[in-house]
Amino acid sequence: MLATLTDRRDFGGDWLLERKLDGERCVARKDGGDVRLESRTAKNLSTTYPEVSAGVAAQRSDGLLLDGELVAFDGEQTSFSRLQQRLGVVKPSPQLVAEYPVVYCVFDLLELDGEDLTGRPLTPAASTLAVPWLAIERAAPLAAAQARCKPARAAQISQDCGSKVPQPLPATARPP
After folding, report:
1. Where are the alpha helices (DSSP H) in the chain?
2. What is each CA distance from 48 to 25, 87, 144, 146, 159, in whole angstroms?
3. Is 30 a catalytic residue?
4. Is the pLDDT higher at 124 or at 66?
5. 32: how many CB neighbours lie within 10 A of its CB?
6. Where are the domains of the chain?
């Protein structure tokens, strides 16, 4: 779901705030031995981020549909300028991959081994992938959004995303 800019700063307990990361949105699909990374405009990113493709391929489950953000770090902060070194490079050299590593911060597990999980209510537990994440190994370039990709803090509300809870994922926000 795309973030919407607002001046609102007063959120009640029925809202879930998550950190807005400075990266490239990506849906990852694993179907047996096939892996595809896709931008929100349906551009194939699989060869652009081979380390992420390999991380998704290494998962034990035969079928996965993940939603997340591809980010590059400068220390503990995400850095869009570092990510820009990889944007649009269809087949990066091993040296470029090593100099500008990318992490896939996973927000949601949308499907697991053929089971559609998008109808489940969005809750704080679900947002951290507490239950579904047990089915996913945390391979090096993969990270739960709440782990490496730091959660929101009230002081950073201008850079956070919010969702009212509990609610199922809207059909318009579901990837194809």
Report:
1. 50-57, 80-83, 94-99, 124-127
2. 13, 8, 21, 24, 27
3. no
4. 66
5. 7
6. 22-120+131-147
Cβ atoms of 132 and 123 within 8 Å: the answer is no
Q: Are 163 and 20 in contact (CB under 8 A)?
A: no
Higher pLDDT, 100 or 20: 100
Q: Which of the following is catalytic: 20, 30, 91, 150?
A: 20
The superfamily in CATH containing domain 22-120+131-147 is: DNA ligase/mRNA capping enzyme (3.30.470.30)
Angle at 11 between CA 172 and CA 72, to 5 degrees: 60
User: What does the pLDDT look like over 127-162, one tens digit per residue?
Assistant: 444 333 333 444 556 655 444 444 433 333 334 444
> 56: which residues sit within 8 A by CB, 6+ positions away?
28, 30, 35, 37, 64, 66, 104, 139, 142
* pLDDT tens track for 62-88: 998 988 889 998 988 889 999 999 999
Spatial contact of 92 and 138, defined as CB atoms under 8 Å apart: no
- Note the pLDDT tens digit of each residue in 108-122: 888 888 988 888 766
